[in-house]
Amino acid sequence: MPRGNQPPQDLDATTEGSHSLQHPPKCNNPRQTPEHTPAVTEQKGATPRGRGRVGSARRLTFQSKLSSAQGSRTRGPPAGHRIPERPNPADPRKGKGTASGRRDNRQRTTSTTKPETSTPKPPTPEHPNMARGGSQNWSSGESDGQPEEQTSEENGDKMVKETQYYDILGVKPSASPEEIKKAYRKLALKYHPDKNPDEGEKFKLISQAYEVLSDPKKRDIYDQGGEQAIKEGGSGSPSFSSPMDIFDMFFGGGGRMTRERRGKNVVHQLSVTLEDLYNGITKKLALQKNVICEKCEGIGGKKGSVEKCPLCKGRGMQVHIQHIGPGMVQQIQTVCIECKGQGERINPKDRCENCSGAKVTREKKIIEVHVEKGMKDGQKILFHGEGDQEPELDPGDVIIVLDQKDHSVFQRRGQDLIMKMKIQLSEALCGFKKTIKTLDDRVLVISSKSGEVIKHGDLKCIRDEGMPVYKAPLEKGVMIIQFLVVFPEKQWLSQEKLPQLEALLPPRQKVRITDDMDQVELKEFNPNEQSWRQHREAYEEDDEGPRAGVQCQTA
C-alpha cells in the first residue's frame, strides 16, 4: 500500500472508549437521524495526509462524545464499543500521569451513559495503555486519589504555646516520657563537656529542657505558658539544677531517670568564738521543723477525701491573660485561690483533726553540733535529712553556718593568728619581757635582748602557736606579733635633763640656715577639722560661681 494511503497509526484512536475512523459510532438518540451525525471535514491549511488523519481522528472522537452527550437516554453503549472498567483503588498500577488517562476522564465526565456492569474490575495488562507500560487515572467518583489533609489532632500533635525545649531535644510536643529520656540520653552523651569542651552552653540547654519536660507538672506549665511561666516560678522552683547533677542522676543513679524530689533545706547560723574554733566544742541547737502527721499519715484527712483542685487542675497556679493594649497581652501567674497552691483540696468535714488538713505538724528537734578544731568562719555543717518533712518528698537538710565573733586580742588569717602589742620607748630601746595568754589558756613569755631595738610596726612571730589545721589538729600555724612603740607624753623630761639624754642618744643632724629660707611653725593636725575646712571651701566656690543668663530690668 502506498505510504499516503496507509491508515494513521494514532495511539489515541486505539484507546478504550474512543472510536476509530472507519467505524463511527451509531446514533443512540432515536430523535436524531444519522444525517445529523457530525462528519469529518477537511480543514484548510492541514498538514500532510499521514499526520492530518491523526488530527482528524482526534476531532472525530471529541465530536462523537458531544453527540453522545446530546442524547436523552441510552439503553447501553454503542455497538462495538467497550466500556472502560473501573480499577480497584488499591491497585498500584493506577495513575494519572498519561494523556490517555486524562482523556478517559473527560469522556466519563461528558457522557451520561452509565455502564451496565455492577462490579468494577481492575484493568488487565491487555489494555493498550497498560501494555505500553502506561497508567490511567480511574476515578471512582468519590475521591481523586489524593491523600486527605489531616488535622493536628489526627496526626497526634499537641497544641503548646512554644516548642523551644522540644526542639532542643529533637522531639515532638506529643512525645512520650520514654522518647524524651531517649533523646536526652543521646544528646547528653554527645555534648558532654568531657567529650566536647566547647559545647558547654549546648549541654546546659539540653539539661534545662530535659529537667522541664521530664517533670509532668513542669511540662504542663511549660506547654501552657512557655519558658516565661517556668522562670516566673510556676513550678515552685524557678531556678534550674546543675547540668552535671542532672547527668549524674540520669546515668549514675542506679537507673533512676527522673530528678530526685526533695524538700527545701533549712539554714541556721551558729555563733562561735575564736576559742571554740581553736579548741573545738559541741553545742546543742533547738529547731522547729515540720514532720508528717502520724494520725493521717500525711494524707490530710480520710482516705479518698483528697481530690484534685478543679480550678487549677492540680498545678497550684493560675494563669491570667490581661490585655494591656491593642494587640498586646500580659500573662500573669498567681497562686490558686482555691487550693492555696497545693493543687488539691479536702472537704472540711473530712480533714484530719490533728493537722487540720496540713498533712504535717510542728515539732521541736534538738540537734548536737560538733565544732571541730580548725574550722573557719562561715564553714557549713550538714545534717542530712533533718529538714522539714513533706508528703511525697524526701526531707531536706539542715545546714549550720558558723558565725565567728570578733576577738579582743587575736585576728585570724588562715591558719595564723595576728595580735598587736604595745611597748614603751624604753622597752623598744633597752629590751623587754612580755606575757601572752593563748586561746587554750596557756601563758607564753616573750622577751627581746638588751640593746636590740624594736621599731614601730615591726613584726615578730612564734611558730606552732597559731590555729590548728582542720582535720589535722596537731599541726598549727604561727602567731604573728606587731609591735607598736608608745612614745612619752609632752613635758615628760625637764629641760635640765634633756642634755643628758641627748648625750646618750645618737647625735642630731645639723642644718645650715640661709637668708633665702622661710622658717615656719608646726601645728597640731586634726583630720576632722581639715576635712570640714575642705568642704566649706568647696561650698564657698559654688556660691561665688558666675550666674549667666539672668538679667534684671528696672522701670
TrEMBL record:
<dbReference type="InterPro" id="IPR036869">
    <property type="entry name" value="J_dom_sf"/>
</dbReference>
<dbReference type="Pfam" id="PF00226">
    <property type="entry name" value="DnaJ"/>
</dbReference>
<dbReference type="InterPro" id="IPR001623">
    <property type="entry name" value="DnaJ_domain"/>
</dbReference>
<keyword id="KW-0143">Chaperone</keyword>
<feature type="compositionally biased region" description="Basic and acidic residues">
    <location>
        <begin position="516"/>
        <end position="538"/>
    </location>
</feature>
<keyword id="KW-0863">Zinc-finger</keyword>
<dbReference type="GO" id="GO:0005524">
    <property type="term" value="F:ATP binding"/>
</dbReference>
<dbReference type="GO" id="GO:0008270">
    <property type="term" value="F:zinc ion binding"/>
</dbReference>
<keyword id="KW-0472">Membrane</keyword>
<keyword id="KW-0479">Metal-binding</keyword>
<feature type="compositionally biased region" description="Polar residues">
    <location>
        <begin position="134"/>
        <end position="143"/>
    </location>
</feature>
<feature type="region of interest" description="Disordered">
    <location>
        <begin position="1"/>
        <end position="161"/>
    </location>
</feature>
<dbReference type="InterPro" id="IPR002939">
    <property type="entry name" value="DnaJ_C"/>
</dbReference>
<feature type="domain" description="CR-type">
    <location>
        <begin position="280"/>
        <end position="364"/>
    </location>
</feature>
<dbReference type="GO" id="GO:0030544">
    <property type="term" value="F:Hsp70 protein binding"/>
</dbReference>
<keyword id="KW-0449">Lipoprotein</keyword>
<feature type="region of interest" description="Disordered">
    <location>
        <begin position="516"/>
        <end position="555"/>
    </location>
</feature>
<feature type="zinc finger region" description="CR-type">
    <location>
        <begin position="280"/>
        <end position="364"/>
    </location>
</feature>
<dbReference type="GO" id="GO:0042026">
    <property type="term" value="P:protein refolding"/>
</dbReference>
<dbReference type="InterPro" id="IPR018253">
    <property type="entry name" value="DnaJ_domain_CS"/>
</dbReference>
<dbReference type="InterPro" id="IPR036410">
    <property type="entry name" value="HSP_DnaJ_Cys-rich_dom_sf"/>
</dbReference>
<dbReference type="InterPro" id="IPR001305">
    <property type="entry name" value="HSP_DnaJ_Cys-rich_dom"/>
</dbReference>
<feature type="compositionally biased region" description="Acidic residues">
    <location>
        <begin position="145"/>
        <end position="154"/>
    </location>
</feature>
<dbReference type="GO" id="GO:0090084">
    <property type="term" value="P:negative regulation of inclusion body assembly"/>
</dbReference>
<dbReference type="GO" id="GO:0016020">
    <property type="term" value="C:membrane"/>
</dbReference>
<protein>
    <recommendedName>
        <fullName>DnaJ homolog subfamily A member 4</fullName>
    </recommendedName>
</protein>
<dbReference type="GO" id="GO:0010628">
    <property type="term" value="P:positive regulation of gene expression"/>
</dbReference>
<feature type="compositionally biased region" description="Low complexity">
    <location>
        <begin position="109"/>
        <end position="119"/>
    </location>
</feature>
<keyword id="KW-0636">Prenylation</keyword>
<dbReference type="GO" id="GO:0010596">
    <property type="term" value="P:negative regulation of endothelial cell migration"/>
</dbReference>
<dbReference type="GO" id="GO:0009408">
    <property type="term" value="P:response to heat"/>
</dbReference>
<keyword id="KW-0488">Methylation</keyword>
<keyword id="KW-0862">Zinc</keyword>
<dbReference type="InterPro" id="IPR012724">
    <property type="entry name" value="DnaJ"/>
</dbReference>
<dbReference type="InterPro" id="IPR008971">
    <property type="entry name" value="HSP40/DnaJ_pept-bd"/>
</dbReference>
<dbReference type="GO" id="GO:0051082">
    <property type="term" value="F:unfolded protein binding"/>
</dbReference>
<dbReference type="Pfam" id="PF01556">
    <property type="entry name" value="DnaJ_C"/>
</dbReference>
<dbReference type="Pfam" id="PF00684">
    <property type="entry name" value="DnaJ_CXXCXGXG"/>
</dbReference>
<feature type="domain" description="J">
    <location>
        <begin position="164"/>
        <end position="226"/>
    </location>
</feature>
<dbReference type="GO" id="GO:0005829">
    <property type="term" value="C:cytosol"/>
</dbReference>
<dbReference type="InterPro" id="IPR044713">
    <property type="entry name" value="DNJA1/2-like"/>
</dbReference>
<feature type="compositionally biased region" description="Polar residues">
    <location>
        <begin position="61"/>
        <end position="73"/>
    </location>
</feature>
